[in-house]
Specification:
The complex is a heterodimer of chains A (334) and B (277). Chain A is globular. By secondary structure, chain A is an alpha/beta fold. The model of chain A has no long low-confidence stretch (mean pLDDT 88). Chain A has two domains: 45-243, P-loop containing nucleotide triphosphate hydrolases (Rossmann fold, 3-Layer(aba) Sandwich), CATH 3.40.50; 247-315, Malonyl-CoA ACP transacylase, ACP-binding (Alpha-Beta Plaits), CATH 3.30.70.250. The longest helix of chain A is centred in the C-terminal third of the chain and has 19 residues, at 315-333. Chain A has helices spanning 19-28, 61-68, 90-94, 113-123, 128-142, 157-169, 187-204, 215-221, 239-243, 292-301, 315-333, and strands at residues 2-15, 31-45, 50-55, 76-81, 97-101, 175-179, 207-211, 224-229, 232-238, 249-255, 273-277, 280-286, 307-312. With 277 residues, chain B is mainly alpha-helical. Chain B is globular, with a radius of gyration of 20 Å. Classes of the chains: A alpha/beta (334), B mainly alpha (277). The interface between A and B is medium-sized, with 28 and 21 residues.
């Protein structure tokens, strides 16, 4: 179980002057800028849950992950992994967590992948039987067997990421932290990685915390999401209720005869917004307030629709809307 | 518990093997330096009041030349250490995080690596170099009689002292490396460390040449144990009692410095700001 309590991280950055005179000045007097990367957040992740940790660049996601796995020490507040603070008892916690930073590899660059795994086997003191079992499992779910004997530097990004993931799972961690595990990968590799995370969670009950910018990752993997902005939590809860935050919004995109115009169309209800986009008619409404059936009938009968596409609002749209609202509110205050 | 550091011990040994060509080039440069030092000391003795028979601060010219040669070999074999630079790189590239999330101690990793390196250096270079030097110097009469069993007792103590010297060097390099967390640059710290060690360990000049007050202080500092003392133990300039005192001082310093390193790291690690991501 992960307990995060009023966690805050403030980075102090020296303000450097411009040019030569500025450089000389900073030698003698240092002024610091304080950046609150993480600003008093609290949440709890029970065992076996997969949590999506999302937010814009610089929202504080990676900083939180780094505090949860013991790399950074919080300025105030606390993180507890199964009751232990990782930045105090680093080695004790490290034995039970796995971490992947998508941007950097943790494998030894020049030696064959399998040698990296053998080093990890010794570091984590994995028994021969466990090691064999894990290699079987990981070889299958991540499809890494083919390039085990290649040096890590010769691997493609997709292969390297799968290798890194396998390395983080080798010691059967109770908790897995994944910081952008699908960054820069193609659709097939992303699929592979998602199914591996699923398999791990199902087979071993591993808790997973992952950050991503790919909303498909979130929709495919996470039962719960935490949305972060400027170091604060904007939303924490199940995926479904975030989706319905603005109602059960559906969008109908219609191909209509040229003589039907959005402005002149007969009105069904003020609840249904009608607009034109790229020569198509777009109806947007809350399906909990206006029956879908009614709108579909209206589209065929009154708008003479020839073709129709029904779409739900995507999680990406919701997040975008929330972040935009937040930005607008912030701008007003300032 | 120590088993998990085995891969680092191995890596240290293998890496050193891989760089044997570099080391060979370095060896050639070192030979030139030794030649310069030998001629320098010969000139010093020749122009001294007593001439070539003089004994300066307890050293005859024969002993001084033996000292210069053996100290150079000793430093060459024992101080093959990249700890400071590796920490500096870990901080600059942000790879320090890779070790912080593993169930190993950062210090232990470096200690194991440099022990592995010491092992390779001793077997690959130490064994032939010491043998050649001892045989040559001995047959020229530059060393006292290398007879059983006294010499073997000294040889054993010398090997122990060499291990202590390597551990001392590594922990000092580590401490300076950890200071890179504060300065974000290893260059100045490395120069400081090198100069400090070269001066206070007796590599530049035997400590007997220091003024009396300073000599007494340096006798109880860790640096003498890093170069001068092991060599003087081997040359049998120290009797058994003094040799054992040197070993005890070194061992005590290893413990003290390791404790300090642990304390320093636990503070410095809070300063970590892993770059990027």
């Amino acid at each position: 179980m992960i307990e995060v309590n009023d966690l805050t991280k403030i980075f102090r950055k020296p303000i450097r002057g411009n040019g030569l005179s500025g450089m000389v000045k900073t030698l003698f007097s240092r002024k610091y800028d304080e950046v609150r990367a993480v600003d008093g957040i609290s949440f709890t992740v029970p065992d076996g849950e997969i949590v999506g940790y999302i937010g814009a660049n610089g929202a504080g996601k990676s900083t939180t992950i780094k505090m949860m796995c013991g790399i950074l020490t919080p300025t105030s507040g606390s993180v507890r992994i199964d009751g232990v603070e990782p930045y105090r008892k680093r080695q004790q916690v490290a034995q039970h967590i796995g971490v992947v930073f998508g941007q950097k590899t943790q494998l030894w660059w020049d030696i064959p992948l399998v040698e990296s795994f053998k080093v990890l086997k010794e570091i984590y003191q994995i028994s021969d039987a466990d090691y064999a079992e894990r290699m079987d499992f990981l070889g299958e779910v991540l499809d890494i067997t083919r390039f085990l004997t290649q040096p890590v530097r010769t691997l493609s990004l997709g292969e390297r990421m799968r290798a890194d993931l396998a390395a983080s799972m080798l010691h059967n961690p109770r908790i897995l932290f994944l910081d952008e595990p699908t960054i820069g990968l193609d659709v097939l590799v992303k699929e592979r990685i998602r199914s591996a995370i699923h398999a791990l969670n199902k087979t071993y009950g591993t808790t997973v915390v992952l950050t991503t910018h790919d909303m498909n990752d979130i929709e495919n993997l996470c039962s719960r999401i935490i949305l972060l902005e400027k170091g604060r939590i904007l939303y924490d809860g199940p995926l479904s209720s975030l989706k319905n935050r603005f109602g059960n919004i559906k969008t109908l995109t219609l191909t209509v005869p040229a003589e039907i115009k959005a402005a002149a169309a007969p009105v069904l209800s003020p609840e249904v917004a009608v607009s034109e986009e790229d020569g198509k008619m777009v109806l947007r409404f809350d399906a909990d307030r206006v029956a879908l059936e009614q709108v579909v009938q209206y589209a065929f009968r009154d708008l003479k629709a020839m073709d129709m596409k029904i779409a739900e609002i995507s999680i990406g749209d919701v997040v975008k809307t929330i972040l935009e609202q937040e930005e607008a509110e912030h701008a007003e205050k300032v | 518990m120590l088993k998990k550091y085995r891969p680092f011990l191995r890596a240290g040994a293998i890496d050193t093997m891989a760089y044997r060509f570099n080391i060979l080039v370095w060896a050639v440069i070192t030979v030139c330096q030794v030649a310069c030092l030998v001629f320098l000391w010969l000139a010093v003795y020749r122009s001294s009041a007593g001439g070539m028979d003089a004994e300066i601060h307890g050293f005859t010219y024969r002993e001084m030349i033996a000292y210069v040669v053996l100290t150079t070999i000793f430093n060459f074999v024992t101080f093959n250490n990249d700890t400071l630079w590796n920490i500096n790189t870990d901080i600059k590239k942000g790879t320090v995080g890779n070790y912080l999330i593993k169930p190993i101690s950062y210090r232990g990793k470096f200690a194991a690596t440099s022990l592995g390196s010491l092992l390779t250096m001793t077997l690959m270079f130490g064994l032939p170099l010491y043998t050649a030097a001892l045989v040559t110097l001995g047959s020229l009469g530059f060393l006292p009689d290398l007879s059983f069993p006294a010499f073997f007792a000294h040889l054993g103590l010398f090997l122990l002292a060499g291990l202590c010297a390597s551990l001392l060097n590594d922990v000092i390099a580590y401490i300076f490396g950890v200071l890179c967390f504060y300065t974000s640059s290893g260059w100045g710290l490395n120069s400081l460390k090198e100069t400090l060690v070269a001066f206070l360990s007796g590599t530049l000049l035997p400590l007997a040449f220091f003024p009396a007050g300073l000599r007494e202080v340096v006798r109880w500092m860790p640096f003498a144990g890093m170069s001068q003392n092991p060599v003087l133990i081997l040359m049998m300039k120290y009797d058994l009692a003094e040799s054992l005192r040197c070993l005890a001082v070194s061992a005590a310093w290893i413990v003290l410095l390791e404790l300090f390193a642990k304390f320093l790291f636990s503070r410095a690690v809070r300063k970590v700001t892993v770059q990027g991501g």
